[in-house]
Amino acid sequence: MSGSWPMSGEGRVPPGQRGRCSSPDRRGRAELGLQHLFNLAMSSPEIASLSWGQMMVKGCSTTYKDCKVWPGGSRTWDWRETGTNHSPGVQPADLEEVVKKGVKTLVIGRGMSEALQVPASTVDYLKKNGIDVLALQTEKAVKEYNALVAQGVKVGGVFHSTC
């Protein structure tokens, strides 16, 4: 999953703006059946690439540093929204948006060096909502997330792409 891609600047989100892709690419919609469109919109998007400080989601032109993904969309994970830091780490407030999308499993990418903490209170929040949680080093988290997507699991995730 490691690697990089050309850095043309295209698709980058200026600081302070939240990148968002509401659904996977739907070119050729007229040719698709209604049920297929529904399934496409409700499936979790694959993470197409990951390298230090950069992530891309399939069907989305935005380059993310940290991102949230859920069935039907993705957006920038802006830590300033909830005051998140490496310690104490991921808070329930960071996950509420993804939880509300009805995910059954949530994958947390803790960073390339696993600097981002996941407190027990955050894991408890997810379990109380009936959600399975995996908190892994980000490269491993992306592989696991993409495997769950391929299996058709209603999966969401939050991923930190640096330390």
TrEMBL record:
Task: Quote the Gene3D superfamilies the UniProt record gives.
Answer: MTH938-like (3.40.1230.10)
Chain positions covered by the region annotation Disordered = 1-27
Keyword Nucleotidyltransferase part of the UniProt annotation: no
* GO terms under cellular component: cytoplasm
List the GO biological process terms: negative regulation of apoptotic process; positive regulation of fat cell differentiation; positive regulation of transcription by RNA polymerase II; transcription by RNA polymerase II
**Keywords (A to Z) from UniProt:** Cytoplasm
Q: Which residues form a coiled coil?
A: none
Q: Extract the Pfam families matched here.
A: DUF498
Asked whether the UniProt record includes Cytoplasm among its keywords, one would answer yes
Q: Known PANTHER family for this protein?
A: MTH938 DOMAIN-CONTAINING PROTEIN
Family label:
Belongs to the AAMDC family.
Q: Know the name of this protein? A: Mth938 domain-containing protein
| UniProt source species | Gopherus evgoodei (Goodes thornscrub tortoise)
